[in-house]
Amino acid sequence: MQPNGGRQGRMRLPPAGGSVSTAGPNRLVLARSLTLALALAAGAVRAATPPLAVPLALEESAGVARHAWPASASVPLPRGRVRRPDALWLAAPDGRAAPLQARALERWPDGSVRWPLLDFLADVPPGKLATYTLREGAATAPASGARVRLAAGRDGARVLDSGALRATVPAGGEALVADLAAGAVRLSGAVPLPALAVDGAPGGAPSHEGVTVETEGPVRTELLVTGRYPAGIAYEVRIAAFAGERFLRLQHTITNLADAHYAPLRSLLLAADDGRTGFRILAPLMKSSGGPAGARAADAALRTNPRAAPAARPRPRRP
What distance in Å separates the CA atoms of residue 254 and residue 234, rounded to the nearest whole number? Predict the structure, then answer.
């Protein structure tokens, strides 16, 4: 194209990041200078932002040494600071990375994490205080240790493996845990569903509606078992396994769906028998407090052995 008496006009493309301008070189230089100034200002803001360091203090009050003990916390984060939960890591008191499992409970409107839920393993001396620090970015070295693994079993069952304990949770039937083993020690029988007794209501075995995965991760994996009792009461049992631990955490929730406004509960019992040793465990999950709707949680399990009386043990409390 040759307008203006045959003189040839040309449009120059600016370098990457610049702006196209047809009004002369002065405006092009101004646009590039403005882009550079904004980039420098953004870098200054990032440099002025202090690194994330949220202290999490764990106090051991039962006088029991805790090694790789399960702990959980939830902390608020500022808007736009953390985009993904896996961008967080937890520093132990000695500065090394601790095993951590993080997920977002709530997010800001811009999509950044507002409330993360943290599951981690902590070491706390008996009667002492240990401070862990939540940080962002990459840890100097990844955390090591056992992991919880989840596998599919037969007929829809789920298998929890903490590295020290293995439990099979069926998808139906009368058992809460079909198979339970810790190393070479295996419970010969199944752990039945908790038995609920309601005054004035017919008894019977509870129904088992299924098992679902509620939380899956390397530190904590939790299953949800649901069903109903004959008295019109629904139940939820959450079974959690923790990395490297030889125990399961059970959380039992019941909801009255019957026509009556109150259900006078007499007992809620979890029992497990080992036919080889004659050892029986009775765990009173709930005891009546005398009121129409009152019930209080039992503090510890009652263990009976026909051969010897169990030794008294302190009741540890999770930090």
Answer: 6
